[in-house]
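During the no-cost extension, the postdoctoral fellow (Dr. R.K.) reprocessed legacy sequence entries with the updated structure-token encoder. One reprocessed record is reproduced below for audit purposes.
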Amino acid sequence: MRISNLNILTVTNILFYSRIVISLIFGGLILFITNNGKMVENQILNAVLVFGLLLFCLLLGQIGCVLLRIYFTSKSKYPYILNIICNMLGFGRKRLQKENININLDDFIKDNNLSLILYYINNPQYPILDFHKNKIRYFTQEYDWENFRWSYKIKSQGRNSIQILEYEGINQNNEKIKDFIDFEKIDAEENEVLLLFIVHDLLFGKSSSIYY
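Re-encoded structure tokens follow.
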């Protein structure tokens, strides 16, 4: 399969796991070297050394992830959108300028195996999120992208973290609504909801996603 044929969600998964794998590989190598060498006798210095090596491995993992990102975006059919979602997910940071993108939405949806109607995870018959050109519907509330503001966040919840999307918009009854979307309630692939928001924001909204 050609690299350019990989959909964006597949690329983001590769980047996520590559960062972990690269960190583990270098961590294993450093652990092997230190076990075959002489550590200092001072326990505090040993702890500082191990902590420093751990941070170094994480840094190497991030550097490897960024290099892979550069490679994938150079081969991607949709490099601008791939760069945006990589910025939002923390796979490096590339400064982007606002552009008038010229893509066919139907082709983009097909190329990336996306669905414009997403369902409640506990009830696959109940549509919870619906994208329709310049309109977006969440539960029973419909908004126009022209006056729809949103921000993507990772929220701590005990020992875990969840992806949420805070938004503010004017619904079909001309009421101002401020709420958030919990990704865990939606039956969708990893980062699918985020990717749908990005492409619709670029085509019909305020392109706020480029400022991450």
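The helical segments are 8-35, 43-75, 79-89, 105-111, 192-204. Strands lie at 117-120, 123-132, 135-138, 141-144, 149-157, 160-170, 176-182, 186-187. The remaining legacy entries will be reprocessed before the final report is submitted.
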